[in-house]
Design a protein that fits this description.
Blueprint lengths: L5 H4 L3 E3 L5 E13 L2 E9 L1 H7 L3 H10 L8 E4 L3 E2 L7 E2 L17
Antiparallel strand pairs: 1-2, 2-3, 3-4, 5-6
Length: 108
């Protein structure tokens, strides 16, 4: 099992397979299983930043109005991001294979 301090990962530029930047890592999604947290995906890009800042749908609507598109937010499954060099996280799949982040459900 590997451990990584999230505060050192948030805000890092994520690179595609060819070394081109696709956006900054802004959000880490995890699920609790038996008292432990397991990362399920990483959210990258402008929409992810708004999600982290809790701007949600209003911020996304504003970005769409201003012309922001799909490339402004991607959900990267936990096993599709190479973190062997945490200073330079890199995709191990095509960015085209990724989907936009899903809207968070409100907390109970």
């Amino acid at each position: 099992m590997s451990e990584l301090t999230l505060q050192h990962l948030i805000g890092k530029q994520v690179l595609d397979q060819n070394g081109r930047p696709i956006g900054r890592l802004e959000e880490v999604v995890a699920e609790e299983v038996g008292g432990d947290l397991f990362v399920t995906e990483y959210h990258v890009g402008t929409f992810a930043l708004l999600e982290r800042l809790s701007a949600g749908e209003i911020g996304r609507s504003l970005l769409r109005f201003l012309g922001a598109g799909r490339g402004d937010g991607l959900a990267v499954p936990w096993d599709k991001l190479d973190l062997t060099s945490p200073e330079k996280p890199k995709l191990i799949c095509s960015a085209d294979a990724l989907r936009p982040p899903q809207r968070k459900a409100p907390h109970p």
